[in-house]
DNA sequence: GAGAAAATTCAGTTGACACTTACGTAAGCA
DNA sequence: TGCTTACGTAAGTGTCAACTGAATTTTCTC
């Protein structure tokens, strides 16, 4: 989850994800969208996205086709929905803080 | 939006956000939760969160009270919902790609 | 097998970032 | 006024991430 969030924090990677959202594309095709950086840079970005589980790779001859892993984004969205508003850990923190406050007051 | 995503990419900041989610807290109180790092580090994290609009600061005497700006997180969630699946820009990209593919085939 | 094509990987540089220590500042209190 | 509390800011350090250019791997074609 951490990896996914970090991956999305980079604008270029979000753009890549958008390109492969509704159809799979070869790396060259993706790289062609970014005139500002080299294909090597894009390849490395694709690696990050792949490690984060946000895209999958399929080989076809010399080409590698990438496609967005939508389920993973869905998970991320769910994470954002849940993380702050639920969980025992948060309740524990609140309890601890209340205890500390109480001790200070004494 | 970029700033918000970057801010959330850091685990410590997510934890901070959780602490001030349901109640405002003074900086000291927040820093006390993190025994691994100094108070200064937490202060800097709070600065990042504030710049990203994810928390607000309120002064009370010598203390500064922080509170999560839930609306901003909601926005972020909406962003994740919309970014990849809509927008003229994506449609434009797809169109361009189709055109390029066509040219290659000729 | 030689060479081209598609893509990654390696090595090195630069900038950003999380962090620490030290210092500064504003508000409350003796 | 001097001291303390609560905090931010400045300066410096180590690490990591994004990038470039060169080298390398894999596959296809002749």
Strand content of chain A is 5-15%
Amount of helix of chain A:
55-70%
Q: Based on helices, strands and strand pairing, what is the structural class of chain A?
A: alpha+beta
| Strand order in space, largest sheet of chain A | 1-3-2
Ends distance of chain A = 41 Å
Rg from Cα of chain A = 20 Å
How many helical stretches of chain A?
A: 6
**Interface with most residues:** A-B, 34 and 33 residues
Q: What's the assembly state of these chains?
A: homodimer
Query: Spans of chain A of 5+ residues with little confidence (pLDDT < 50)?
Result: 100-106
- Beta strands of chain A, count: 3
* Overall spatial form of chain A: elongated
Q: What is the N-to-C succession of helices and strands of chain A?
A: HHEHHEEHH
What about the largest sheet of chain A? Answer: 3 strands, antiparallel
- What average pLDDT do the residues of chain A reach? 85
Polypeptide structure, described:
Two copies of one chain form a homodimer. The first copy, chain A, contains six helices and three strands, in the order ααβααββαα. With 106 residues, chain A is of the alpha+beta class. Chain A starts with a helix and ends with a helix. Chain A binds chain B through residues 2, 5-6, 8-9, 11, 14, 17-19, 21-23, 25, 29, 32-33, 68, 73, 76-77, 80-81, 83-85, 89-90, 93-94, 96-97, 100-101, and chain B through 2, 5-6, 8-9, 11, 14, 17-19, 21-23, 25, 29, 32-33, 68, 73, 76-77, 80-81, 83-85, 89-90, 93-94, 97, 100-101.
């Amino acid at each position: 989850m951490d990896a996914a969030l970090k991956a999305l924090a980079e604008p270029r990677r979000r753009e890549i994800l958008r390109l492969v959202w509704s159809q799979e594309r070869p790396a060259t095709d993706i790289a062609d969208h970014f005139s500002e950086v080299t294909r090597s840079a894009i390849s490395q970005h694709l690696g990050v996205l792949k490690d984060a589980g946000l895209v999958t790779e399929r080989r076809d001859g010399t080409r590698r086709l990438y496609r967005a892993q939508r389920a993973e984004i869905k998970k991320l969205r769910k994470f954002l929905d849940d993380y702050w508003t639920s969980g025992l850990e948060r309740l524990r923190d609140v309890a601890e803080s209340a205890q500390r406050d109480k001790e200070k007051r004494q």
